[in-house]
């Protein structure tokens, strides 16, 4: 296939995927599980070969001056390969959602009406940096009975190609079409433009990367997109709260790992508890080098604590996703003000309330308009694995189809099923 003729190449890839999707939708649970266990074996068996291909990407990335954190994301370490292999086995052990009929109800006419869970068909996934996403996406596609077209970043092309060959071998071993998982083999960016504009071949696109990539895909796609743009996650410390719990959870939400989209970026504190809470939090964060963008009230309570970097918050800070040891802090007078602030400046990703007041907790989870809303728990739990989904293909802040962590069920849809015994409408 001529990789330089992008329209023809992508049309071929799309047609192959559409044909494979039909076979995958009809595939038995046993065949899909066999492919997943074969994939896990293949990943362990081919570790040395995978790491040799990965070394080419690492060398090129370092030669091009890619930042050290980005280079680290590229690495296929023993641990990374072992983790994705284990993930495949975990998916194989999970219940198959495809074909399940729910809500079956007998109607007065005699018919029974229910809903059956079915695959979406073909999804395209565009991602950056981490080559392990190739396996995560492929394994979820297999278990959910979909076909997928994967387009990884150019910086990981050799790693992704090597991983893809292991996936294809596993599919063939299980008697499933190898074309059910396809990798765009060219690094030409025009391929992305074609992938997101082929509704005849692709049912949905899932971008996973930086805000710039996701904004471009959302603006240009001619097929539905499952996405989130920002992760401006909030922690609200209510007037009635267990201070020890609030310190532990707020610290974890911000500092356990700062780069994921579910790390907290904004802290709202009720004035009634601010004097007791904020100095203790500041004493905890000073040694960690956390920078706080404060409103006047919170800055006054935090001033003078050793090691703490304080700056005046601007209006832009309330909506910022820092992905660093930086957090905005604001005092609020009420639960109403906290909810209004979150709904105005938040990104509808994940927000938490820390409180001992049950009615306040229930109001918060009803009225905060986000994909995940938490009570007395760290925002870092907003994750497909932690939610028991087995794996996650991304986070969605959209309101239709999938919302929050997108796992197996998010890659399926529902259709109506009617069961009868010769009934006719009169």
Report what the structure shows.
The strands form four sheets. The protein has a seven-stranded parallel beta sheet with strand order 10-9-11-8-7-12-13. A four-stranded parallel beta sheet has the order 5-4-3-6, sandwiched between helices. It has a three-stranded antiparallel beta sheet with strand order 1-2-16, with no helix packed on it. The model has no long low-confidence stretch (mean pLDDT 95). It has helices at 6-26, 29-45, 47-63, 68-74, 78-93, 132-144, 157-173, 190-195, 211-220, 243-255, 271-285, 296-302, 335-345, 358-367, and strands at residues 101-106, 112-119, 122-127, 147-151, 181-183, 204-208, 233-237, 264-270, 291-294, 309-312, 326-332, 350-354, 372-375, 394-396, 404-406, 412-419. It has 426 residues and is of the alpha/beta class.
In short:
With 426 residues, the protein is of the alpha/beta class.
Topology:
Blueprint (H helix, E strand, L loop, with lengths): L5 H21 L2 H17 L1 H17 L4 H7 L3 H16 L7 E6 L5 E8 L2 E6 L4 H13 L2 E5 L5 H17 L7 E3 L6 H6 L8 E5 L2 H10 L12 E5 L5 H13 L8 E7 H15 L5 E4 L1 H7 L6 E4 L13 E7 L2 H11 L4 E5 L3 H10 L4 E4 L18 E3 L7 E3 L5 E8 L7
Parallel strand pairs: 3-4, 3-6, 4-5, 7-8, 7-12, 8-11, 9-10, 9-11, 12-13
Antiparallel strand pairs: 1-2, 2-16, 14-15
Helix pairs in contact: 2-5, 2-7, 3-7, 5-6, 6-7, 10-11
